[in-house]
Amino acid sequence: MIGIVSYLVFFLTMGFVLSIAVLGLNLQWGYTGLFNGGVAAFFGAGAYGVILFGGSNKAGQLIGFGLPYPFAVAGAVLLAGLLAWIVGLITTHLRHDYLAIATFGVAIAVENFARNAEPITGGAKGLRGFERPFETVINDPFWFNLAYLIFVFVVLIIVYNILENIGQSPFGRLLRAIREDEVAAQSLGKSPARVRLQAFIFGSMIMGLSGALYATFYAFISPQDIVPILTFQIWSMLIVGGSGNNKGAVFGTLIVWAGWVGSGWVLTQFAPVEMQLYIGTIQFIMIGLIIVLTLLIRPKGLLPEKLIISRSVARVKPE
Amino acid sequence: MSDTVLNVQSLTAGYVPGLPILHDVNMRLGRGEIVAVIGPNGAGKSTLIKAIAGLVLVEEGTIMLGARNLVGIRPDEMAIFGIAYVPQTNNIFRTLTIRQNLMLAAKRSDGLVDDLIERMFTLFEILRDKQLDKGGKLSGGQRQMLAIAMALVAEPTLILMDEPTAGLAPKVAEEILALVQDIAEKGVSIIFVEQNVKAALRISNRTYILAEGRNQIDGSTQELMEGQVIKEIYLGGRRLETS
Ligand SMILES: Nc1ncnc2c1ncn2[C@@H]1O[C@H](COP(=O)(O)OP(=O)(O)OP(=O)(O)O)[C@@H](O)[C@H]1O
Ligand SMILES: [Mg+2]
To answer: Which of A36, B57, B159, B169 holds its CA 20 to 30 A away from the CA of A99?
Structure first.
C-alpha cells in the first residue's frame, strides 16, 4: 500500500515539475508562436544550475557555491534566462523555422557541454552531492517526498497564476497579436522583435525553474536527463493538452506523463524478454504517434485555447 | 494649397534590392487633405503606401513628414510620428476581441483609453454591440470599420489606407468613404488607395495615378474628371509622363 502511495507521490511530483516546463513552452509557442526546439537546453541549464549554485564544492570540481536553496534556484532560473537571452540575440529576430533549428542546436550543444566539461558538470557521471532543503529536518524519505510534492504543487500554482495574468494583461494581448500578424502589429507601433525576445527569455526561465525542481528531487543531474527526447516529450504534452491554454498544458502533461509511465510499466511486465531492451525505443515511437494522432484528430488539443477576455472588458459588459 | 504634411520626392523603392517596383514617384499631401491613389492591378499602389509606412526598402528619394525624412524609420516607430497604416488585408487581429483590437491599437494606456474607445463606438455603433466578439467573426464591412477605428484610436495626424472599400457591398463602401471624408474634416490627412475611380475622384481633393510603378499624372480631381488620361491609362492607351 505504502508502495503505491509513494509511487503516486513520485508520479505527481514529476507530473507537476514537467507541467511547469510545459507552461513555459506554452508561453513561447501557445501565446507567442515561438518554436523552441531546444526545451531540454533551458531545462538543463536550470537543472545543472541549481546543483552548481547550491551544491557543495568537491575535489576536482570547479564550481559548487553552496548557496542557500532559494538563491540556488534563483541562480538556476537566471542561468536559463541568460542562455535564452544569448540565443535570442543570436537568432536576432527569432523567426519561426530558424529559431526551431537554432534552439535544437543549442540543446545538442548544452548536452555535449554537460557530457564533456567534466570539471564543471561532472561529465557523463553527472553531478551529485546536493543537499536538498529540509532533508535533515524531515529525514523519513516518504514524508520528505510528500512535503516536496506539496512544495512543487505550490510552485506550479504560482507559475500558473502568473501566466494566466500575463495572458489577460496588455502584454499577453500583444503576444497574441504578434503571433497572428507581425506586420500588422508593427504597424500599430509595436516592436515584435523585442516582445518576442521577452517572451522567449521568460518562457525559458520557467523551463529552467522546472529543471531546477527536477534536479532537486533527485539531488542529481546527468547528461542523460537532458537528451533531445525530453524536448519532444514536453512538446507532446503541450500539443495533447492544447497550446494557448494553460489548463490544457497541465492537463496534457499529466495525461502524457501517465501514458509514459503506464506504458513503461506494462511493457516491463508483459513484453517478451527479448523486447525488454527496446522499451525506451517503443516509448519514443509512442510519443511520436501521440503527437501525430493528436494533430490529425484533435489539432487544437484536448483543451483548446479559449477566448481571453481581459478584466477591464469584463467590467464594461454591455447592458 | 494648405501647408504640406507629407512630401514624397523621387521615390524609388521595392522589395528586393536592385529591383525597384516604384520609380521616381512624387506625391504631396496637405493638412486635412484627402489624396487618392488609383491605378491598375500591380501598379505599385500598395507598395507606395507601404514605403511611406516603412515596410519596404527605399533605394532613392525622400519621404518628408514636415522637416523629417521618414526613410529608414522602422514601421513600429511610425506611430510615434502620428502615422497610422491600414493594410489592404489582414488589418485586424482575428483572434482578439473587437475591444482588445482597439486597446492594442491605442497608444495610451491610461484611463483615457476607455474614453477613446467609447468615441469609436459612437462612430461605429455596430462595433459596440460586438465588442466582446473575436475579430474573426466580423463581416467584411465591419472588419474595415474596425481597422479604421484602430487607426483612429491611435490619434494619428496622417492615415494611410490601402483599398478600404475593397470587396465591400456598394452601400457599405459608401459609408466607409463618407467616414473618410468626416475624418479629413477633423484635420487628419488621408492617403487612400481606391479601385473605384469614380469614388476616388469624388471624395478626394487630389488624385494620383500610378501605373507600372510610375506617376502618370496628378492634378486636381476636377482636371482629371475632364481629361482623357484615366481612360487611356486604364484602357492601356498612350501613357503620359509625370506632369
Ligand atoms: N512582398 C512582395 N515581394 C515582392 N514583390 C512584390 C511583393 N508585393 C508586391 N510585389 C510586386 O510589386 C508590384 C506592385 O504590387 P502592389 O501590391 O504594390 O500593386 P497594387 O497596385 O497595390 O495592386 P492591387 O491593385 O492588386 O492591390 C507587383 O508586380 C507585385 O508582384
Ligand atoms: Mg494593392
So the answer is: B57
| Cα–Cα separations (whole angstroms), residue B139 to B49, B63, B64, B172, B174 | 25, 35, 36, 11, 16
Beta pairing class for B206-211 and B57-65: unpaired
pLDDT attached to residue A92: 62
A307–B97: do the CB atoms touch at under 8 Å?
yes
Interface test with A, best of B52, B88, B104, B146 (most A CBs within 10 A): B104
DSSP class of B107: S
Q: d(Cα B213, Cα B13) in Å, to the nearest integer?
A: 9
Q: Kindly give the residue spans of alpha helices, DSSP state H, lying in A130-221.
A: 141-168, 170-180, 182-187, 192-218
- H or E segment to which residue B62 belongs: strand B57-65
Residue in A31, A168, A188 to test binding to B, most B beta-carbons within 10 Å: A188
Distance CA A239, CA A217 (A): 26
- Give tens-digit pLDDT for B163-194: 998 888 888 888 889 989 989 998 999 999 99
CA distance A121 to B100: 47
Give the closest ligand to the alpha carbon of residue B40.
Answer: 1
- Residue A202 near residue A212 (C-beta atoms within 8 A): no
A 10 A CB-CB count for A286 gives 16
Nearest to A46 by CA among A162, A199, A163, A213: A213
Tell me the pTM: 0.81
CA-proximal residue: ligand 1, atom 17 (nearest): B46
> How large is the greatest C-alpha to C-alpha distance in chain B, in angstroms?
57
The 10s digit of each residue's pLDDT in A272-315 is 888 778 888 888 888 888 888 988 888 888 888 765 444 444 44
List alpha helices for chain B, DSSP H. 45-52, 98-105, 112-123, 125-129, 140-153, 170-185, 197-203, 221-226, 229-234
pLDDT-above-90 percentage for chain B = 45
The torsion angles phi and psi of B58, rounded to 5 degrees, stand at -95, 125
B114-144 tens-digit pLDDT: 888 998 898 888 899 999 999 998 998 899 8
B56 CB near ligand 1 (under 6 Å): no
Residue A279 cell numbers, joined: 522499451
Cβ–ligand 1 contact at B104 (below 6 Å): no
State how far the Cα of B18 lies from the Cα of B16, in Å rounded to an integer. 6
How much is the pLDDT for A317? Answer: 39
B15 Cβ inside 6 Å of ligand 1: yes
**How far does residue B162's CA lie from ligand 2's centre (Å)?**
7
Distance (Å) from the C-alpha of residue B160 to the closest C-alpha of chain A?
11
Q: Confirm if B160 and B52 have CB atoms less than 8 A apart.
A: yes
Of the candidates B42, B62, B51, the residue with the CA atom closest to the CA atom of residue B213: B42
Per CB-CB distance under 8 Å, the chain A contacts of B95 are 176, 179-180
Confidence label for A93 from pLDDT (cuts 50, 70 and 90)? low
Three-class DSSP labels, A82-104: HHHHHHHHHCCCCCHHHHHHHHH
- Give the C-alpha distances (Å, rounded to integers) separating B217 from A260, B41, B48, B60, B198: 70, 17, 15, 21, 16
